[in-house]
Design brief:
Cytochrome Bc1 Complex, Chain D, domain 2; 8 strands; two-stranded antiparallel ribbon; 3 domains; two-stranded antiparallel sheet; binds heme C; 15 helices
Length: about 350
């Protein structure tokens, strides 16, 4: 009787335990074997033996190598061209999976491939795949530590004065253009992040960080901590930020300013209309004096307030500060609104 009760109790505990274990196993962890069956077996075969132009993955030293970086890159980016496996040459094309499988899924399928059949190699972690997927994230992390962490903090949490970059929807936005422009041009004025308002000044990094550095640090902040947004390329950086402003600014300059200051900013009338190329006011680190002069005019220099919007003044000032060898740097609409 007592023995039966104890037995029933044990059975109840054990089955509750199994139920919980079952629940944990059915949680998201991807099934490497199932991924292999649906995505890879058509070419590499269920047995891993390969066929025709498709190399074997079973008994393949490249698959079981202790350094997994080439293996992960092959699956992320695909590969083609002749490869030698166990003395046989294959030269087909392995598709790229980076847009079709997550880091977790690639880790799972490679862990399966490295332990299935007669293979006996260690697991591949999602972190290893993440590092391979975002190779610049490492240098981006170094730039972040050197240039950004003093304000935004190493864990991206920010402070009461500096906005968080971790969990910040502007940082992880699917279109990174605005974030790139912020890093390139800086920004100031009220900024609201997850309900908190910040009113500081983010410095401009133009001229201090190359496009590649900006791509690296932007990729880092978009993929670090709990952020999971895709990386930013150098081309995206080159195509956004001040070049956009500057293109608008160039057309404003051509139609409103070039008649007096010359199409190349060289000035006219022997000094009556000053050169803007190499001009110290224009190149001044602080753009406020140039903005104020353009807004209010002085003697024969017309006032543009009311004729050009703050955004247009930012664009034309950005243009004259970056054209013809000038190195003053970009100016934001907020800078214009902050000027007197
Ligand atoms: C459309 C056919 C095809 C599919 C599907 C495919 N592969 Fe491949 N795979 C190839 C070919 C072809 C090569 C050899 C490429 C070469 O010749 O450079 C290859 C090469 C490889 C290699 C490199 C082997 C070595 O010796 O370096 C690995 C690892 C690999 N595939 C894993 C996978 C995994 C994992 C999947 C599923 C996510 C997959 N492949 C899906 C065709 C395919
Ligand atoms: C001197 C302090 C400081 C440094 C250094 C700094 N930031 Fe900032 N950053 C700020 C402030 C302040 C803001 C908010 C500006 C505002 O209120 O308009 C900001 C805003 C941002 C934003 C916009 C966030 C949003 O929600 O739109 C991004 C992105 C950003 N910073 C990235 C960086 C990166 C990347 C670096 C390093 C290259 C960096 N910051 C360095 C102070 C700083
Ligand atoms: C009608 C002719 C004229 C036009 C059009 C004109 N400017 Fe000027 N600008 C001048 C003159 C003249 C000065 C010198 C004013 C002075 O110092 O008294 C000047 C001065 C400047 C200065 C200051 C240069 C310095 O060294 O002090 C800047 C910057 C400037 N202009 C930018 C612009 C921009 C940008 C535009 C177009 C939006 C523009 N100007 C349109 C005539 C013009």
């Amino acid at each position: 009787m007592t023995a039966a009760l104890v037995c029933a109790f044990i059975i109840a505990v054990v089955s509750a335990f199994h139920a919980r274990e079952g629940a944990a196993a059915s949680a998201p962890a991807p099934d490497g074997k199932a991924i292999f069956a649906t995505k890879c077996a058509a070419c590499h075969q269920v047995s891993g033996a390969g066929a025709g132009p498709y190399p074997p993955l079973n008994g393949n030293g490249a698959v079981t190598a202790s350094d997994t970086s080439n293996l992960i890159l092959t699956v992320l980016n695909g590969r083609s061209g002749p490869i030698q496996v166990n003395g046989k040459t294959f030269s087909g094309a392995m598709p790229a999976w980076k847009d079709h499988l997550s880091n977790d899924e690639i880790a799972a399928v490679l862990t399966y491939v490295r332990s299935a059949w007669m293979n006996r190699a260690a697991i591949v972690t999602a972190e290893q795949v993440t590092t391979a997927r975002y190779p610049v994230a490492l240098t981006g992390g170094q730039i972040f530590a050197a240039k950004c962490a003093t304000c935004h903090q190493a864990d991206g949490a920010g402070t009461s004065a500096y906005p968080p970059l971790n969990g910040n929807p502007h940082v992880a936005a699917s279109d990174p253009t605005e974030m790139i422009a912020t890093i390139v041009n800086g920004r100031s004025g009220a900024l609201s992040v997850n309900g908190a308002t910040f009113k500081g000044k983010m410095p401009s990094w133009k001229g201090q960080l190359s496009n590649a550095d900006i791509a690296a640090v932007a990729t880092y902040v978009r993929s670090a901590w709990t952020n999971k947004a895709p990386g930013v390329t150098e081309q995206q950086v080159a195509a956004s930020g001040p070049s956009v402003l500057s293109t608008v600014g160039a057309s404003i300059f051509a139609s409103k300013c070039a008649a007096c200051h010359g199409a190349n900013g060289q000035g006219r009338g022997h000094g009556t209309f000053p050169a803007l190329a190499g001009n110290s006011l224009v190149n001044n680190n602080d753009p406020a004096a140039a903005i104020e002069l353009i807004e209010h005019g002085r003697s024969m220099m017309p006032s543009w307030k009311g004729q050009l919007s703050a955004g247009d003044i930012a664009a034309v000032v950005t243009f004259i500060r970056t054209a013809w060898g000038n190195k003053g740097g970009a100016v934001s609409e907020q800078d214009v609104m902050a000027a007197k």
